[in-house]
Input
Amino acid sequence: MAAEKVDPAIRDGCKELVFDSSQLQELSKRFLADVHKGLKKQTHPSSIVKCFVTYVQDLPNGSEKGKFLALDLGGTNFRVLLIELSKDHFEMRSKIYAIPQHIMLGSGEQLFDHIADCLAQFMKQEQVMSETLPLGFTFSFPLTQKGLTKGYLERWTKGFNCSNCVGNDVVQLLKDAIARRGDVKIKVCAILNDTTGTLMSCAWKNPYCRIGLIVGTGSNACYVEKQKNAELFDDADKGSGNVLINLEWGAFGDDGSLDFIRTDYDRDVDTNSVNPGRQLHEKMISGMYMGEITRLALEKFTKQGLLFGGKGSEALFTRGKFYTKYVSEIEGDPPGTITSCKDILVEELDIPHATDQDCHNVRYVCECVSRRAADLVSSGIATLLNKINEPRVTVAIDGSVYRYHPHFHNLMMERISTMINPGINFDLMLSEDGSGRGAALVAAVASRIEQQQKK
Output
């Protein structure tokens, strides 16, 4: 941060976006209390951080081998993947299929018939129709799981609204659609969300992986917990003694526990969102909101006469017009240089009168917003590292903010280091394709365990 070039009034105005260590410690304490509530039978129904049991008990150990299918449904497109594993070899072929609007808003039967149809097309193309392959199903909508292959849809999000699905087991809906066709032979081994997949995808390469994290359009995390602490785990098979917990941490703060650090910008973003009062933690972190938080701060400072000589533009004063990618691009300039910032202000936001001083100030605002997001994520991850309390842990991470923001990784490394207990070593690892590769790996591990039990 080229701090000496920033106007003191701007620095002062951004103070509420900068956390001190006591605020971060308080944040960690509140998050841990919520995790405990989510894990306990008695407090789970009213808990904000849900800590859903995923029923994934074992991580990959590298000995998985064979052919596996994966389905990845998380938005307007879905993917079918075929993955072949041997000791150190990984081969993946995949195809993307669209889900037309009329199917997204049609019946559940239509949706799953469409998925089964695309799966059959893909299997024909890959010449595996005669084989019965294990399949992992990434389903990135809110689920209550009752087993590794039982997941009941809580509610639709992301523009879907198919009838006869909410409250039903989506694995059964998929199996029914496959049975209606009669020409496809698969064995559904697991249903999971993208956060679980992110952890599994890294764990195949890295035996120290214990936490999965998404920092993209949304934000969520999962981690390895001891079964005895996960009171909702009701599987008769207590296999490994561990189980993966899907935190659904985006909802942290929905009961007011983040009010001590939320700002007017956060309240504005929330009020104007599609789900006011929900996912408040996520709204302070994720790529869907980071640009808008920055824009609101820039608008306020402009109207106070601290930026652009008090003269903004229609674009700057329009909701959603300052994209999160601008934050990454502006911070991507080498310290002290302002090339990207000038381009964005002049070309994209129609502020030709922006001075060099304005550019340094705008960069500082961007840095405060992204550092705050990194601090929030890091506080949560440090809390989990301290809870797991193993000497060496790898955190698997995916999502556009972590992947494309030029300093997010370093900001996280720096902050987590100040918050973990002595004797814990950690590293952060970019996960490759958690929702595809991760799903196949969950299926692969389930198959491996089943074969071991048969022996």
About this structure: The mean pLDDT is 93. Residues 356-388 form the longest helix (33 residues).
